[in-house]
Amino acid sequence: MAETAQTRESEGESNTLRVLVATDCHLGYMEKDEIRRFDSFQAFEEICSLADQNKVDFILLGGDLFHENKPSRSTLVKTIEILRRYCLNDQPVKFQVVSDQTVNFPNRFGQVNYEDPNFNVGLPVFTIHGNHDDPAGVDNLSAIDILSACNLVNYFGKMDLGGSGVGQIAVYPVLIKKGMTSVALYGLGNIRDERLNRMFQTPHSVQWMRPGTQDGESVSDWFNILVLHQNRIKTNPKSAINEHFLPRFLDFVVWGHEHECLIDPQEVPGMGFHITQPGSSVATSLIDGEAKPKHVLLLEIKGNQYRPTKIPLRSVRPFEYAEVVLKDEADVDPNDQDSVLEHLDKIVRNLIEKSSQPTASRSEPKLPLVRIKVDYSGFSTINPQRFGQKYVGKVANPQDILIFSKSAKKRQTTGEHADDSEKLRPEELNQQTIEALVAESNLNKLNSEAEKFKIDEEDIIVKVSECMLERVKERSLQSKDGARMTLSSQNLDIGGKSGTAQSSLNSFSDDEDTREMLLGGRKSSGFTRPSKDSTDVAKRGASRRGRGRGTSSMKQTTLTFTQSRSTATIHSEEVASSSEEETEANEVVETSEPEESLPQVGRKRAAPRGRGRGSAAKRGRKTDIASIQSMMMSKDDDSDDEPPKKAPPRVSRNYGAVKRR
């Protein structure tokens, strides 16, 4: 009876294929960190050791063996040392690869590594590439190709994306037989998720090759396994692979790339296959998903049946994760930062104490990784580096223990409306668009004031014009006692050098008071002849805001300075201007600099015939104020013996200027 049981057990073992499944080893991760530099290698060495202890037939890796696309020499040396230690021995390999190996392993040798007579491979390793160690460059090589060339791993699932458009791929299985068990191992190395998504939805872009029928075997006798390395979480459907894209003939799927350990196989409804997600063997992102215990999967296959056994990894550094919402904590005061620090310190101490408790799944004590996600809505942030200084030597990541975030606002779907105090709670004011609220408030005030004080713009302009005329008369009366205006040819520049001219320039500017009055209403473009009624003048100035567009001729006062040896006489003429002339004349230089430094902004008019060589005229809509002033002075000064001295008009931003040359 004992011999019969041993015989059955030996027959069962000869027909059972034992595979150790792991993904995302990320060798070389944090290799420059003094504390965590060996974490990835220790976990990978433990995986190889578990494979040796459980007498598996081979190791199956699901991508991202290396963390970097171009791993350092130190990382390559450590990886080769581990593989050489556990994989090269004189243990017999009890399975066969019966498929076309030149298609499965497209390298120079084109065969499975344990069949090379120059190497004693006792533990074969089959692996695909991930997104971290994918092939690149002119020769389309990966870091895994280095290990393959060293005959340490069997690199499969490397696709040549040929064809037009999204491309076409043909997935050929590695056919493995052990006794009565036949396994078709499909491998699909990482392809950009968006592209692979389109390929799955494009007919005939992805072709799955099935095993041929021979020696009385049917296609259904093969146990079909697929190992791939793609996004699985559907945050964006186009950047992930839906399980329903996969073919229905599959029996078991090993999903790499996702680091959360979901080792227990889950059946996909309506598809007929199960998916295992071993997760990473080293924590590369300090998130909630990676805080779960790390495992590898021992998969035993016999015929069309399989038996999964999860094995915990004991060498993995402990990782404790917690989430805190400060506004929900009773002992935290938003206005007291010390209370916040004390509360966070208490949480960190509890997590450190929790990680230090001895467990059967840990081989030796290590400094733990601690991460606290803090929702600080309504609170000020804390410097994470300064906070972590007190935990140097107590945790493995003192510089990034804290990570701050704010909870997203959820729109209320119910019919109940929150009151105003609920909408504008103090802790949420920092998320409000304060500028928009202030602008809206100011706009409401302006609108209410405008409704109270509605004044016709035409009346404002009329009053301004009347006030201007009164000021001109007052100024002209005050200047009667001055000396005659004698301007030599040397003193005709705008920057008048005499003190009398400068004081007269200031008296004719009227820039401060008048500009304030004009800015109160609509900005007037200027005034025409003072002989018109003030209301008509105001209306014309208000209606002509842009360039002159009128087709009818109008009378415009032009100041012409006739230059002689010692005097300059002011002439007044009435010129009929068409719309084209008005367009030329309406460009005015608006600056307070002397004329010598002024850029030639406006176009100068040619001097009228019959005038002196030095005479010139500058016509502009905004110079009419100066025209009014000069005409009023000329009328008042006719009775005097000596004409008063008149300085060149000051260049004003509101009224324009008259140029001299």
TrEMBL record:
<feature type="compositionally biased region" description="Polar residues">
    <location>
        <begin position="554"/>
        <end position="570"/>
    </location>
</feature>
<keyword id="KW-0158">Chromosome</keyword>
<dbReference type="GO" id="GO:0030145">
    <property type="term" value="F:manganese ion binding"/>
</dbReference>
<keyword id="KW-0255">Endonuclease</keyword>
<feature type="region of interest" description="Disordered">
    <location>
        <begin position="474"/>
        <end position="661"/>
    </location>
</feature>
<keyword id="KW-0540">Nuclease</keyword>
<comment type="similarity">
    <text>Belongs to the MRE11/RAD32 family.</text>
</comment>
<feature type="compositionally biased region" description="Basic and acidic residues">
    <location>
        <begin position="413"/>
        <end position="427"/>
    </location>
</feature>
<dbReference type="InterPro" id="IPR007281">
    <property type="entry name" value="Mre11_DNA-bd"/>
</dbReference>
<feature type="compositionally biased region" description="Polar residues">
    <location>
        <begin position="499"/>
        <end position="508"/>
    </location>
</feature>
<comment type="function">
    <text>Core component of the MRN complex, which plays a central role in double-strand break (DSB) repair, DNA recombination, maintenance of telomere integrity and meiosis. The MRN complex is involved in the repair of DNA double-strand breaks (DSBs) via homologous recombination (HR), an error-free mechanism which primarily occurs during S and G2 phases. The complex (1) mediates the end resection of damaged DNA, which generates proper single-stranded DNA, a key initial steps in HR, and is (2) required for the recruitment of other repair factors and efficient activation of ATM and ATR upon DNA damage.</text>
</comment>
<dbReference type="InterPro" id="IPR029052">
    <property type="entry name" value="Metallo-depent_PP-like"/>
</dbReference>
<feature type="domain" description="Mre11 DNA-binding">
    <location>
        <begin position="306"/>
        <end position="453"/>
    </location>
</feature>
<feature type="active site" description="Proton donor">
    <location>
        <position position="132"/>
    </location>
</feature>
<dbReference type="GO" id="GO:0030870">
    <property type="term" value="C:Mre11 complex"/>
</dbReference>
<dbReference type="GO" id="GO:0008296">
    <property type="term" value="F:3'-5'-DNA exonuclease activity"/>
</dbReference>
<dbReference type="GO" id="GO:0042138">
    <property type="term" value="P:meiotic DNA double-strand break formation"/>
</dbReference>
<keyword id="KW-0269">Exonuclease</keyword>
<feature type="compositionally biased region" description="Basic residues">
    <location>
        <begin position="602"/>
        <end position="621"/>
    </location>
</feature>
<feature type="compositionally biased region" description="Basic and acidic residues">
    <location>
        <begin position="474"/>
        <end position="483"/>
    </location>
</feature>
<keyword id="KW-0464">Manganese</keyword>
<dbReference type="InterPro" id="IPR041796">
    <property type="entry name" value="Mre11_N"/>
</dbReference>
<feature type="compositionally biased region" description="Acidic residues">
    <location>
        <begin position="579"/>
        <end position="596"/>
    </location>
</feature>
<keyword id="KW-0539">Nucleus</keyword>
<dbReference type="GO" id="GO:0000724">
    <property type="term" value="P:double-strand break repair via homologous recombination"/>
</dbReference>
<comment type="subunit">
    <text>Component of the MRN complex composed of two heterodimers RAD50/MRE11 associated with a single NBS1.</text>
</comment>
<keyword id="KW-0378">Hydrolase</keyword>
<dbReference type="GO" id="GO:0097552">
    <property type="term" value="P:mitochondrial double-strand break repair via homologous recombination"/>
</dbReference>
<feature type="region of interest" description="Disordered">
    <location>
        <begin position="406"/>
        <end position="427"/>
    </location>
</feature>
<protein>
    <recommendedName>
        <fullName>Double-strand break repair protein</fullName>
    </recommendedName>
</protein>
<dbReference type="GO" id="GO:0035861">
    <property type="term" value="C:site of double-strand break"/>
</dbReference>
<keyword id="KW-0234">DNA repair</keyword>
<keyword id="KW-0227">DNA damage</keyword>
<dbReference type="GO" id="GO:0000014">
    <property type="term" value="F:single-stranded DNA endodeoxyribonuclease activity"/>
</dbReference>
<dbReference type="InterPro" id="IPR003701">
    <property type="entry name" value="Mre11"/>
</dbReference>
<dbReference type="GO" id="GO:0000723">
    <property type="term" value="P:telomere maintenance"/>
</dbReference>
<dbReference type="Pfam" id="PF04152">
    <property type="entry name" value="Mre11_DNA_bind"/>
</dbReference>
<dbReference type="GO" id="GO:0007095">
    <property type="term" value="P:mitotic G2 DNA damage checkpoint signaling"/>
</dbReference>
<dbReference type="GO" id="GO:0006303">
    <property type="term" value="P:double-strand break repair via nonhomologous end joining"/>
</dbReference>
<dbReference type="InterPro" id="IPR038487">
    <property type="entry name" value="Mre11_capping_dom"/>
</dbReference>
<dbReference type="InterPro" id="IPR004843">
    <property type="entry name" value="Calcineurin-like_PHP"/>
</dbReference>
<feature type="compositionally biased region" description="Basic and acidic residues">
    <location>
        <begin position="530"/>
        <end position="539"/>
    </location>
</feature>
